[in-house]
Amino acid sequence: MELTVLVIKSLVILAVFGITLLIATYSTYAERKVAAFLQDRIGPNRAGPFGLLQPIADAGKMFFKEDFIPAQANKWLFILGPCLAMLTALMSSAVIPFGDSIRYGSFEVPVQGIDVNVGVLYVFGVVSLGVYGVMIGGWASNNKFSLLGAIRAASQNISYEVALGLSIIAILMMTGSLSLRHIVNEQNGFFQWNVFTQPLGFVIFLTCAFAECNRTPFDLPECETELVGGYHTEYSSMKLGFYLFAEYINMFTSSAIISTLYFGGFQYPFMHQVHDALVDSLGSTVGHNIATGIGTAVLFGKIFFFIFFFMWVRWTIPRFRFDQLMNLGWKTLIPLSILNVVLTGAGLLFDKFKYATWLIVIVMIIMAATNAIKAPRRKPVTVPQL
Amino acid sequence: MEGFFMAFYRMGWHRTAANYVRFIANLRSFLSLLSMNTASYLPSDYIPIFIQLSLALGFIVVTMLVTHNIGPKRHSVKKDDPFECGIPTQGDARAPISIKYFLVAILFVLFDVEVIFMYPWAVNFMQLGQEGFIQMVLFMGLLLAGFYYVIRKGVLKWE
Amino acid sequence: MNQFNTFLASFKNLTTAGYLFYGLGLITLISAISVVTAKNPIHSVLALIFTFFCLTGHYMLLNAQFLAIVNIIVYAGAIMVLFLFAIMFLNLKEEDEEAKTNVTKMAAVIVGGVLMVLLLSIFNYAPVGTYNPASFDAKTGLVERLGIVLYSDYILPFELASILFLVAMVGAVMLGKREAGDPHF
């Protein structure tokens, strides 16, 4: 690898790193604003214009809080827990293609940390390591609530990891590569986006992404009504901040991965026409780089939509019960994703037909409709007159 | 000005500088040795991961050091106890827990290996064709039979 | 002594990959030894996870990229989680560690020694793979090649693996079946 290429890649990684942290910081602000909007409140508006300095104030507060380690905790493991959670969260963005490529002199460097042909598996591997931060933190606290929260979190994460892995397989069968860049390049053209060819796979993946990020409706590990604060009950100061921050970083990365796998990544309709027009008018270097920039901006638009979607769901849907959660993961999502794989395979073998899984979706919609029609109508609640 | 250069020379820093230049040159040749261009399917494709790793580790270590060193530190016996909603702590927190969680973990390991087996198959799906499809359906059928047994035995029943 | 000098001299004309290999090998050995010597079982598991990462590094140096990542997913990500669960269940403490008698220690030393002699003799006779730059193909260890070989030449072991999974599942259910009245929460 030439030094120039390495320097450009380092700059890309540095930029992605900074943007990740910035977006995670401002996600806390956005979350409170979205919550306020959905609940007809105003939300944070005291620190700076529109409360925009609120995340900075929060971070400062976190830093100056007492960094408390319980007497009965294992000190080093207690410190290691949040560090591991943060490390796994920060490492996962390396394989995501954030744009096409940058031209610099005679080099053409892809806007991506590493362009390897095991990209999907890299994401899967980092996700599978995410359990340790929670488990070690919860165990080291030596607190009953923390331990129960950690065990719950670990069971939930590993249960949904299986369905997560199975739901991607259908995409790989169509693409024939584990490289995320290859998967994005396959989705050129609006109706080639995997969300149209794999609607069921998308829904399963989205659900599992929610569960892996411990977001509502799957936030049982930190369920206040049962477990006080869950695995981070004993944590304070920036160690608590790391756990919360890691959740927001995971939200950003999973939004990016959902956009990459199912919504065409940095692709947008008429991309090639725009690229050619820019290259014609501004030259092959500047025009190409600007076209890449537009693609990156489009990708970030998709990512912001999914971050908003995460928040929207959080303030709309109530939390699952633990048995409901496990039943959904094991008895619904895993069989469904296996069915998805089999049907996709059958469709591909039969004349390379990519849209076979719509069959399951149609059957499910019909079943839901008949259920809704057959179900006995609920009596309207009568309010007793006073 | 001349005296300054003489002092520089006498302290041997010019050698340090020359060594530094040589180090950079070595680094250059080291990097070009590993591979010549991008996407070469060689281990050098993974070098940028270490940049990301060092960034992440640096961020974490600096933040941890800062947060440990600013902020108050006050200890007391009651405060250092594990939190149990205000009542005195009862027993050890690390009590045995339900075996179900452990069974879920075992099932997860089995399914994880199965999913990993499916990745090389899915990548080569079009090439392996019908034969490969039947083989994988057989594999999954046997596994699903076991899964059906597990469900019927009520291992995944939570109450 | 002379041999030792040539061994030292061989370090000077190693390639970059050679230095990386020796460095990584040293780290692997240290972390593997600390798995055995660690007092706290959780520290032991963490050291084992780190050892698996080092092994992934070795796979990387051999350019077996698929195996490298799978090593992380299956060993570091799944089996080690199982280990952590087991440790949390057993609730091991340093004080109630069972006393090891001299007989067990002796038996352990003998078994370990025999295993080491066996491994060394196998290593002595085994053909060591050589590297031919003319026929080198960087894509050999990638997932595409591996899939083709696995699903054509090694299809029988693959199908037998599913029977192994079936047996493992049934065994887990039999071992972990909860009797009525057992505490659970």
TrEMBL record, chain A:
InterPro entries: NADH_UbQ_OxRdtase_su1/FPO (IPR001694), NADH_UbQ_OxRdtase_su1_CS (IPR018086)
Keywords: Cell membrane, Membrane, NAD, Oxidoreductase, Quinone, Translocase, Transmembrane, Transmembrane helix, Ubiquinone
Membrane topology: Multi-pass membrane protein
Molecular-function GO terms, alphabetical: NADH dehydrogenase activity; oxidoreductase activity, acting on NAD(P)H, quinone or similar compound as acceptor; quinone binding
Subcellular location: Cell membrane; Membrane
UniProt cross-references to Pfam families, sorted A to Z: NADHdh (PF00146)
PROSITE patterns the record matches: COMPLEX1_ND1_2 (PS00668)
EC number(s) stated in the UniProt entry for this protein: 7.1.1.-
The reaction(s) this protein catalyses: a quinone + NADH + 5 H(+)(in) = a quinol + NAD(+) + 4 H(+)(out)
One CC-aspect GO term: plasma membrane
GO biological processes: aerobic respiration
Transmembrane segments: 6-29, 76-99, 119-141, 162-184, 190-211, 248-270, 290-313, 333-350, 356-373
Top EC class of this enzyme: translocase
Subunit structure: NDH-1 is composed of 14 different subunits. Subunits NuoA, H, J, K, L, M, N constitute the membrane sector of the complex.
Its job: NDH-1 shuttles electrons from NADH, via FMN and iron-sulfur (Fe-S) centers, to quinones in the respiratory chain. The immediate electron acceptor for the enzyme in this species is believed to be ubiquinone. Couples the redox reaction to proton translocation (for every two electrons transferred, four hydrogen ions are translocated across the cytoplasmic membrane), and thus conserves the redox energy in a proton gradient. This subunit may bind ubiquinone.
Family assignment from sequence similarity: Belongs to the complex I subunit 1 family.
Protein name in the entry: NADH-quinone oxidoreductase subunit H
Gene name tied to this protein: nuoH
From TrEMBL, chain C:
InterPro entries from the UniProt entry: NADH_UbQ/plastoQ_OxRdtase_su6, Nuo/plastoQ_OxRdtase_6_NuoJ
Top EC class, one word: translocase
Molecular functions (GO terms): NADH dehydrogenase (ubiquinone) activity; quinone binding
Subcellular location: Cell membrane
EC number: 7.1.1.-
UniProt keyword annotation of Transmembrane present: yes
Superkingdom field: Bacteria
Annotated Gene Ontology cellular component terms: plasma membrane
Key words of the record: Cell membrane, Membrane, NAD, Quinone, Transmembrane, Transmembrane helix
Ranges annotated as spanning the membrane: 20-38, 45-62, 68-91, 103-126, 154-175
Membrane topology designation: Multi-pass membrane protein
Catalytic activity: a quinone + NADH + 5 H(+)(in) = a quinol + NAD(+) + 4 H(+)(out)
Function: NDH-1 shuttles electrons from NADH, via FMN and iron-sulfur (Fe-S) centers, to quinones in the respiratory chain. Couples the redox reaction to proton translocation (for every two electrons transferred, four hydrogen ions are translocated across the cytoplasmic membrane), and thus conserves the redox energy in a proton gradient.
Family recorded in the similarity comment: Belongs to the complex I subunit 6 family.
PANTHER family: NADH-UBIQUINONE OXIDOREDUCTASE CHAIN 6
Name by which UniProt lists this protein: NADH-quinone oxidoreductase subunit J
Organism: Fibrella rubiginis
